[in-house]
Specification:
four-stranded parallel beta sheet; 22 helices; about 25% strand; globular
Length: about 650
C-alpha cells in the first residue's frame, strides 16, 4: 500500500487550469463531469470531441480551418490525420504571450551572473535570424541542425527556424562527433549552427575542431558551420530592420522537429514530429496536467538533445517565463540548482529522477521557497525519494511523468485534482487510452503488465525520417500487439488508479517465470548510502538455468564488504521476495548510461551473453565510453 503524501486544497483545485477546462467542456457539451475519471472517460470515448475542445480552449490560431478532427488510418495509428486542412505556426503561438511585464527567459550558466532575456530581446534575435535564414535560401521543409548548449540563443534560433516552416534538429555538445554524424547525416541539413566552447562542472570543453570536422561530413550544407558568439553570428544579430516578425503557416502535420532514439544498438531512429500535434499536446500536458499558468516560472533541467528541452520550451506557450540552468546541477555548489530555484522563485521545477535520488540523503536548509510543483522523469522515481522530496517541500505537488521521445510528451502525468501517493504517477492524461497487458494480451489491474496505448495521439510520430513504407515505425511499436502501440515499459495500475512504472519491459528480470522490474531492485539499492549507483541483469542459459548478477558502484572510499552484501540481500528479500535477491553482488568502477540518461542494462546483458561489443552498443551514445570497460574485459577473459 502506497503512502498518501499530498492532497490538493479546495482552492488549489478550483484555481487549476484543469478545472477551468472541465467547466468549459461541461458548458459546451452539456455534460456533467463530476470527477477526473469521468472527464478522462469522455476524453477517450469521444476522442475527436476532446481534441477539438482542447484546440478551442487554448484558442489555437488556425490560418485555414480543418475539415475533420481525426481521420483514422486503416492501420489505426500510422498515417492517421489530425485537423486535416488546418494550417498554423508554432512560433506564432509562442509570441502571442509576449509581454513587457515579465521576462521571456531567465538564464543561469554555471559561474556566471543571471541573465534576463526580455520578450523584446528574444523577438529582435528571432527577426534577425529569420532574415538571415531566408537570405541563405532556407525554405519550408529544409532541415536546420545545431549542436548547442541550452541557452536563449538556442531558443531564438529554433523559433526563427520554425517561423519560416523549416525543420529543427539538435544535439547537445557533449555528444561525440560520430554520434552526431549518425543523426544529422540522415536528415540532409542545409545549415549547421554550433557552440565552439561549452562549460560543464567548472571545466571548459573546446569542440570547435570537432564541429568543423562534423560540417565536412555533411555534404548538403550550403555554408561552413556557424559558431554562436563568433563574428558571423554576431553580424547576424546586429542586423537591424524595421520589418516585423512574420510567420509561415504550415499544415497541422508539417514536421516541427526531428528527435532521435537513443541508438544503443544500430543507427538512431530519426523520429519526426508534427507542428500541430506537439503544439496541442504541450498545451494540454503543461497547462492541464502540470498546472502551469500565465506569469509563473518554469524550469526543467535538460540538454538540447533530450525531448524535455522541447517540452520545457513550450512553457512559453502558456505565458510562463522559461528558466534555464545550464551546466552541472551540482556546480559550483552541491545545492546550486536548488539555490537557483529559490533565488528566482521558480514555480515549476523539473529534473531527471536520478538527480533527486542522488540528493535524497541531504537535508535542504529550511525554510526554503516552496515551488508549486516538482517534476521528475527519465526513470521511475522511487517511493522513498517521493517522500524525501515531500518532506523538503511540504506544500509542493510532486509530479512524476512518463512518456518519451516517441511522443515528445508524457501520457502518464500529474493532476491538480488528485492526491499524490509515494511511488505512483497520479493519472493517465486526458486523451490517452492506456492499459497494462499481461502475457495473454489481457488488460489487468494490480498486476504488472506491458504498457499498451489503444488509441492514437496527435503527438505520435508522423514517421521516421527515411523509413520507407514505415517499416521501422511498424516494427518499433506494433509487432507485439497488432494494431496497438506497445511502448516497452512495465506498469501497474494501483487500487487508487495511480500508475507505478517498473522500467523497460525488454530489461525485465525473469526469475523462475516471475517477472521483476529492475526499478524494484534499484528502489532498495537507493536506500544504501554506501552505494552510488547500481545495475542488474538476468542471464538466461541454454540449460534453462539463469544467473542474476547485481553490479554496484560504491561511494568514493567505500568498499563492498561481506556485511554490506548481506544487508542488501536481506533488504531485497524483506522488501520484495527471495526472487529479488541477486546471485552475486559485484563492485564496478562505473555504471554505464546513454547521453539521455538511460542505464545500459540490455547492452550489458548482451555483452555478458557473448555478443560482440560493436553489435551490443554504439559507444558514441555513452556518457562515458570507459564505463563499459569492466564488462568488455570480462567478456575478453571469458573467451
Amino acid at each position: 500500500m502506497s503512502n498518501l503524501i499530498w492532497q490538493p486544497s479546495v482552492h488549489y483545485k478550483q484555481e487549476s487550469s484543469l478545472t477551468q477546462f472541465k467547466h468549459f467542456v461541461e458548458q459546451k457539451r452539456h455534460k456533467k463531469m463530476d470527477s477526473y475519471p469521468a472527464l478522462w472517460e469522455w476524453s477517450i470515448s469521444e476522442l475527436a470531441e476532446f481534441w477539438e475542445d482542447i484546440s478551442q480552449f487554448f484558442d489555437l490560431k488556425l490560418h485555414t480551418p480543418y475539415h475533420q478532427v481525426l481521420a483514422a488510418s486503416a492501420q489505426g495509428f500510422i498515417g492517421s490525420k489530425w485537423f486535416d486542412g488546418a494550417t498554423l505556426n508554432y512560433a506564432e503561438h509562442i509570441f502571442r504571450k509576449a509581454s513587457t511585464d515579465r521576462p521571456a527567459i531567465l538564464f543561469q550558466e554555471e559561474n556566471k551572473p543571471l541573465r534576463t532575456c526580455s520578450w523584446k530581446e528574444l523577438e529582435d534575435m528571432v527577426i534577425s535570424l529569420q532574415h538571415h535564414l531566408l537570405e541563405y535560401g532556407v525554405e519550408k521543409g529544409d532541415r536546420i541542425v545545431a549542436v548547442l548548449r541550452n541557452s536563449p540563443e538556442a531558443i531564438a534560433l529554433f523559433l526563427a527556424v520554425n517561423s519560416i516552416g523549416a525543420i529543427w534538429s539538435c544535439c547537445s555538445p557533449d555528444f561525440g562527433e560520430a554520434s552526431i554524424v549518425e543523426r544529422f547525416s540522415q536528415v540532409k541539413p542545409k545549415l549547421l549552427f554550433a557552440d565552439a566552447i561549452y562549460s560543464y562542472n567548472g571545466k571548459l570543453f573546446d569542440i570547435k575542431s570537432s564541429m568543423l570536422s562534423l560540417a565536412s561530413k555533411l555534404d548538403t550544407l550550403v555554408d561552413d558551420v556557424i559558431f554562436i558568439d563568433e563574428q558571423k553570428w554576431t553580424d547576424m544579430l546586429s542586423f537591424s530592420t524595421s520589418a516585423p516578425l512574420t510567420f509561415t503557416a504550415v499544415p497541422f502535420d508539417h514536421p516541427i522537429w526531428i528527435l532521435y532514439s537513443s541508438g544503443t544498438t544500430g543507427k538512431p531512429k530519426a523520429i519526426t514530429h508534427s507542428n500541430g500535434g506537439n503544439l496541442i499536446e504541450h498545451f494540454k500536458a503543461l497547462a492541464l496536467h502540470q498546472n502551469v499558468q500565465e506569469e509563473e516560472r518554469f524550469v526543467w533541467y535538460a540538454t538540447t538533445g533530450w525531448m524535455m528541452w522541447n517540452y520545457a520550451l513550450s512553457s512559453l506557450l502558456i505565458g510562463a517565463t522559461l528558466c534555464i540552468y545550464e551546466g552541472a546541477m551540482v556546480y559550483p555548489e552541491k545545492l546550486s540548482f536548488w539555490d537557483f530555484v529559490e533565488q528566482n522563485k521558480i514555480d515549476h521545477v523539473g529534473a531527471g529522477a536520478a538527480y533527486y535520488i542522488a540528493n535524497q540523503h541531504l537535508t535542504l536548509d529550511q525554510p526554503r521557497f516552496q515551488p508549486k510543483t516538482i517534476g521528475s522523469t527519465g526513470s521511475p522515481l522511487p517511493p522513498q525519494t517521493f517522500e524525501w522530496l515531500q518532506k523538503q517541500f511540504p506544500s509542493s505537488q510532486i509530479v512524476s511523468l512518463s512518456g518519451g521521445t516517441d511522443v515528445c510528451s508524457a501520457f502518464l502525468s500529474g493532476n491538480p485534482l488528485l492526491p499524490v501517493y509515494a511511488g505512483e504517477i497520479q493519472c493517465l492524461t486526458l486523451g490517452s487510452k492506456i492499459a497494462a497487458y499481461n502475457e495473454n494480451g489481457e488488460s489487468v489491474k494490480n498486476e504488472v503488465g506491458e504498457l499498451v496505448i489503444e488509441l492514437p495521439m496527435p503527438s505520435m510520430p508522423l514517421y521516421f525520417w527515411n523509413d520507407h513504407d514505415n517499416r521501422q515505425y511498424q516494427a518499433s511499436y506494433f509487432e507485439k500487439y497488432p494494431g496497438l502501440w506497445c511502448h516497452g515499459d512495465w506498469i501497474k495500475f494501483t487500487e487508487h488508479d495511480g500508475i507505478v512504472v517498473y522500467g523497460r519491459s525488454d530489461a525485465t528480470l525473469n526469475r523462475g517465470g516471475v517477472r521483476i522490474g529492475t526499478a524494484e531492485i534499484y528502489n532498495v539499492l537507493n536506500t544504501f548510502e554506501e552505494v552510488e549507483d547500481s545495475l542488474i541483469i538476468c542471464l538466461d542459459h541454454e540449460d534453462g538455468t539463469s544467473k542474476m548478477p547485481l553490479y554496484v558502484q560504491m561511494k568514493p572510499g567505500v568498499e563492498l564488504s561481506d556485511d554490506l552484501q548481506a544487508q542488501i540481500k536481506l533488504k531485497l528479500r524483506k522488501s520484495y521476495s527471495p526472487r529479488h535477491v541477486p546471485d552475486e553482488i559485484v563492485a564496478v568502477p562505473a555504471i554505464p548510461y546513454t547521453m539521455s540518461g538511460k542505464k545500459l542494462e540490455i547492452p550489458v546483458k548482451k555483452i555478458m551473453m557473448g555478443t560482440p561489443v560493436e553489435k551490443a552498443v554504439s559507444l558514441d551514445v555513452l556518457k562515458d565510453p570507459k564505463s563499459l570497460d569492466f564488462w568488455i574485459h570480462m567478456q575478453m577473459n571469458n573467451k
